[in-house]
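Many introductory courses stop at the sequence. We go one step further.
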Amino acid sequence: MNPLLRRQLPFVGLLVALMLFGGFAPTSMVDVGVYALMYGLAAIGLSLLMGLAGQVSLGHAAFIAVGAYTQAILVAKAGWNPLLAMPVAVLASMLVALLVGLPLLRLRGHFLALATLGLGIIVGVFVTEQDFTGATSGIYGLPNLEFGGRVYDSSQEYFLLLTPVIVIGLWLASNLVHSRTGRALSAVNDSEVAAECLGVDTFALRLRVFVVSAAYAGLAGSFYAHWLTIVNPSVAHFELSVKILLMVVLGGLGTVWGALIGAVAV
């Protein structure tokens, strides 16, 4: 068999397994599975940041909140089509990551972890205090997602909608790990000084993977908003950041597949 095709078999197997689970598993289990896939998206992004770039984030829920609130504002208040609002929500999370990453990623170790913790707290306080975010009540009344003439208003429907998204996200992350950029990031993680001596722009690489990890979190936030049909400040809580961090650690920092396994376990 062609080596390229052989590398795709695990993703095809995952797609088939998830579709069978979503179609035949009990509703209560599928309901939990929906949360596992949504949080798994964010965990995949964080696994790239931690396992590949070696950067610890304790405020990843901030990017989920940015994606969720952007989606909610555009759909519930501005009347946008949810599918058109999703790319904007992802871009908003990436923009926030870019702006805060420029100063934060110059820090190292515990200082970076504490700085990202502060970011999560700032976002949580901000959405709690602003009228346009609904303050403590949040934004409610979001519609269920509609796509292909179907309304995804049940756990089975939503799980099957999320299945190709999580598989594609995992495939893209895996390709990044095995790309030239991924190898350069692994070198940075092993020895930043050695990588810089070989001409690697370590800061730019860390910033890029930070923005990519925020994109995964922002997309998870968009799906989160339409699943609950309400977005409130709880989405930015430190507890959620710790939960996603736990998923990555339990699944194993060395593989993006572990992020999804950790999400299911948690």
